Amino acid sequence: MAFWDLTSVPMEWFRPGIFSKVEIGNNLIMVCMEIGPGREDAGHVHPFDQSGVILEGRIEMFVGGDRRLLYPNQSYFIPAGERHGWRTLNEEVRLLDVSPKHRSK
Q1: Model confidence pLDDT, tens digit, residues 43-81
Q2: CB 3.0–4.6 Å: which of 6, 19, 32, 78 could bond 50 by disulfide?
């Protein structure tokens, strides 16, 4: 699919509390996610850059030692190898995330 309406893109179950729509190209992965309230990723690292924009709701994110509360129309960039994570508050969050396609060796 070449075009998404980010206000109504159909989502599928990803894991508890998270629904997503994924588009995988030759080099990029684009994911629209809806994350329920009170969810958290305590932190992880991966060998590729990642970026995104908050579409609805608020989410607290950290990248390295920098922790921010992000609102709609704010973006994030996570450099490869940097520990990062997030937590949702008392509302659902919708975001659009883009990263390179991971290749298994």
Answers
A1: 999 999 999 999 999 999 999 999 999 999 999 999 999
A2: 78
Q: What is the pTM of this model?
A: 0.90
Q: Cα–chain-centroid distance for residue 66? A: 17
Long-range contact pairs involving 51-56 (C-beta distance under 8 Å, separation at least 24): 51/75, 51/76, 51/77, 51/78, 51/97, 51/98, 51/99, 52/76, 52/95, 52/96, 52/97, 52/98, 53/95, 53/96, 54/93, 54/94, 54/95, 55/6, 55/94, 55/95, 55/96, 56/92, 56/93, 56/94
Half-sphere exposure in the Cβ direction for 46 (13 Å, CA):
12
